[in-house]
Design a protein that fits this description.
By secondary structure, the chain is α/β, with parallel strands linked by helices. The protein is 25% helix and 32% strand. The longest helix has 22 residues. It starts with a strand and ends with a helix.
């Protein structure tokens, strides 16, 4: 049987691509090498940030599109609230990488304002600020319920006859005159269109991309702070990032939501390519505690939980979203450099556009 479209990967971008392809009337099959709700890739976890504050005007514009078009459509179709408004707090030394954020964001017309560091201390007393920090208050920011998004998309697929095949690994693609052949761990499929949204596993299917990609493990902690519970919740506690002097000094976090503890992690964007199938080390709890203690202006009572995921970094932290160089029936929608979840609904639509 010749299929209309096959999506490889059931992360946020794969499921959003399937969502948009199905809404255009195509019969879609999604192939996922692991099972529902797995924590092997990049789309698991309870929450993600949405924001206008960015280092590049292109992402400021894309964030607006996601916020005004992508997420509202998804909320309408999934019949649930996925985007929860809360302040966005973005800060760092004006002489470092944060200069790009100030320039790109404040010049974009987005509802983001620069505020004095003393006002930031008064408004966000749980955070440590340095005297030379520049601070942006992002009124467009919010928290995305990532787990609810993934669960809702899978349910939508089931309700709209999108077949999701778990535990089905794609081993190779072959372009033929009339179709694309997909060799999987459970047999061969033939399709008119393919979306490759397999994140860290992209280079295993398209080896020529490997020199451009770095797969970097991330470590995330959930912390109990010495603060009233209402001070760490959505609408009071911000989504935030501190962007330091260089790429190694970039940390971020979110309010308590859906589980105990505020989220805090280092945004690691440099490192060697690792095999995504290799056994990963457990998160370094001492390092995570030190990160939190140098971020917050109150006592960190303890580390409640950890989790890990993978970033697939492309050059200059951009995305790979284009046709395969040798076959325009194959769209590559992957390698979103650790900041792609917030754009999932619009990236999924662009993937469908590539295969229209």
């Amino acid at each position: 049987m010749l299929l209309d479209a096959v999506v490889v990967g059931a992360g946020i971008h794969g499921l959003c691509a399937a969502f948009h392809l199905r809404r255009r009337g195509l019969r879609v099959t999604v192939l996922e090498q692991f099972g529902h709700g797995n924590n092997s890739g990049s789309s698991h976890g309870m929450t993600r940030i949405i924001r206008s504050s960015y280092h590049d005007p292109r992402y400021v514009r894309l964030a607006k599109k996601a916020r005004q078009e992508g997420w509202p459509l998804l909320e309408q179709e999934l019949h649930t609230t996925l985007l929860h408004r809360t302040n966005g707090l973005f800060f760092g030394p004006e002489q470092g990488l944060f200069a790009d954020y100030l320039r790109a964001t404040l010049g974009s017309g987005a509802d983001v304002q620069r505020i004095p560091v003393d006002l930031a201390r008064a408004k966000f007393p749980l955070f440590l600020f340095r005297d030379d920090d520049a601070v942006m208050l992002d009124h467009t920011a919010g928290l995305l319920s990532a787990e609810e998004t993934m669960r809702g998309l899978l349910a939508w697929c089931g309700e709209h006859e999108v077949e999701v095949r778990d535990n089905t690994k794609v081993n190779a693609l072959h372009s033929e005159d009339s179709c694309v052949q997909i060799n999987t761990s459970h047999g061969v499929l033939f399709t008119r269109r393919v979306v490759l949204a397999c994140g860290a596993w992209l280079a295993k299917l398209i080896p020529e991309l490997r020199p451009q990609l770095s797969v970097i493990p991330q470590e995330v902690g959930y912390f109990e702070l010495d603060a009233p519970s209402e001070a760490t919740r959505v609408a009071t506690f911000p989504v935030w990032a501190r962007i330091g002097a260089d790429a190694a000094d970039f940390r971020y976090g979110l309010p308590e939501f859906g589980r105990a503890g505020v989220k805090c992690a280092q945004h690691k964007t440099t490192g060697a390519f690792i095999d995504p199938d290799a056994l990963r080390k457990a998160p370094d709890e001492a390092q995570l505690l030190q990160l939190a203690r140098t971020t917050f202006n109150v006592k960190v009572r303890g580390l409640l939980a950890t989790e890990s995921c993978l970033y697939t970094m492309a050059p200059e932290e951009h995305f790979i979203l284009r046709h395969h160089h040798a076959d325009t029936r194959i769209a590559i929608v992957s390698a979103c450099s650790g900041h792609g979840f917030k754009f999932g609904p619009v990236i999924g639509k662009e993937a469908a556009d590539l295969l229209a």
